[in-house]
Specification:
alpha+beta; Protein Transport Mog1p, Chain A; seven-stranded antiparallel sheet; three-stranded antiparallel sheet; 15 helices; DUF1266; DUF1266 domain-containing protein; signal
Length: 407
């Protein structure tokens, strides 16, 4: 998901500066008079606004909660990027991630600068430097901050970042306003320890999606979320309706990837890998199965995993994803809230005794990710460890808590 937004931001850069056509200097005013010649500019969805020069015009970025405007000469531009903290519209799970994404996407190289006063935001910081566009390098003043509703990046760009332009930018920032939309959520179940347990089993992925692991399914249950999760289920699971939802859940509970893992181990053992020394396994796999170096290394690693953890090494991967699916099914409207919670309880009661702690369950999930993706799970492990340090740590709920129906 992060790569998708990075590509989108890069595309926006080309559109913005290709349209505004940076040219010479636009002239200046004294900072005290600037507000008098400004007017309010709002995001398309009306969730945020800021005051800019009244003669500036808006450029459509195709994202309802972003804003772009520039002057008529085209040598000054403003971009507001908003990443809502909840829901499926967010592309950053924290302020640092937004900063990193912004800098990478706009090739922004800046140093710490005096931050403006933005009464509605906290943690406001600023950087001044240069950014690369398709039309060359321009000066930039980037401001970062957050509200309870969203993370923000405000970019002021100009071909000549003089003191008057900076003063104008700070005046604009002082007029930032936010109009948080009233949230619709049809969920009725309370966030009890049992529901927290369900959520924790797939909190790593929920956080990677930029969603809320304190909600069953990660999103508010409403029409927008329903459409988004239905699309996600089509793209990642080929689930299109209740029948395919049932079929996929049945598959992951009865087979999943753990059966494929055991089958692969069986094939390796039938070929005699058990009698081959650890240092010779890669050569054996290349010779016996015609594998290239990378594939041979992968299966050697999987066999090491089996020797260390047994044939149930990746079971947690399937179980956590089964619980994740039920959250999706509820938000997508394929299961009622009661159906999704009841089935989650059945699965959780079966899974809980198979592991002794969150660390053990989540590590099994990570091993399954490695098997499925054929890549390292280090990034996901880092997310798990970071989640445990948060004030709302989803793993603070006792792994061995008594799971019971509370809805």
């Amino acid at each position: 998901m992060r790569n998708k937004w990075k590509k989108w931001l890069a595309l926006c850069t080309a559109v913005i500066f290709g349209t505004l056509m940076l040219q010479g200097c636009a002239g200046t005013q004294s900072p005290e008079k600037m507000l008098e010649s400004m007017k309010e500019f709002s995001t398309e969805d009306g969730t945020a606004s800021i005051y800019l020069n009244e003669n500036w015009t808006v450029e459509d970025l195709g994202v309802d909660y972003w804003l772009c405007a520039g002057n008529t000469l085209g040598n000054q531009v403003f971009i507001m990027m908003q990443s809502p903290k909840n829901g499926f519209d967010g592309f950053a799970s924290n302020m640092e991630e937004l900063k990193e994404l912004f800098k990478e996407s706009y090739s922004f190289l800046g140093e710490s600068a005096e931050a403006p006063e933005i009464p509605l935001m906290t943690g406001v910081t600023a950087q001044q430097g240069q950014m690369n566009t398709d039309l060359g390098t321009i000066d930039g003043y980037a401001v970062f901050g957050e509200t309870d509703y969203a993370y923000y990046a405000l970019l002021f760009g100009a071909d000549n970042m003089n003191d008057s332009f900076l003063a104008s930018a700070k005046v604009s920032c002082s007029q930032f306003q936010e109009n948080v939309p009233e949230e619709v959520d049809y969920t009725t179940a309370e966030l009890t320890d049992t529901v927290r347990w369900f959520n924790a089993s797939y909190a790593v992925l929920t956080d990677l999606n930029g969603w809320d692991y304190n909600r069953f399914g990660g999103l508010p249950a409403n029409e927008e979320s329903k459409a988004a999760v239905q699309q996600l289920l089509v793209e990642w699971w080929d689930v299109t309706d209740r029948a395919s939802a049932d079929e996929t859940l049945d598959w992951i509970l009865s087979e999943g990837h753990r059966v494929g893992f055991r089958d692969d181990i069986g094939i390796l053992e039938d070929a005699g890998i058990g009698s081959v020394s650890a240092q010779d396994r890669i050569s054996f796999l290349k010779s016996e199965f015609g594998l290239d170096e990378a594939s041979a290394q992968f299966y050697a690693d999987m066999y090491d995993m089996y020797l260390e953890c047994g044939e149930t090494a990746i079971d947690g991967w399937d179980y956590c994803r089964a619980l994740n699916l039920l959250g999706y099914y509820y938000v997508a409207g394929y299961y009622t809230e009661k159906e999704a919670l009841d089935t989650s309880l059945e699965i959780a009661l079966a899974v809980q005794p198979e592991f002794t702690s969150w660390d053990e369950l989540i590590e099994s999930y990570m091993r399954g990710y490695v098997y499925w993706a054929e890549e390292s799970a280090d990034d996901r492990r880092a997310v798990y460890e970071e989640l445990k340090t948060r004030s709302d740590n989803p793993y603070a709920v006792d792994y061995n808590t008594a799971l019971e129906k509370t809805w």
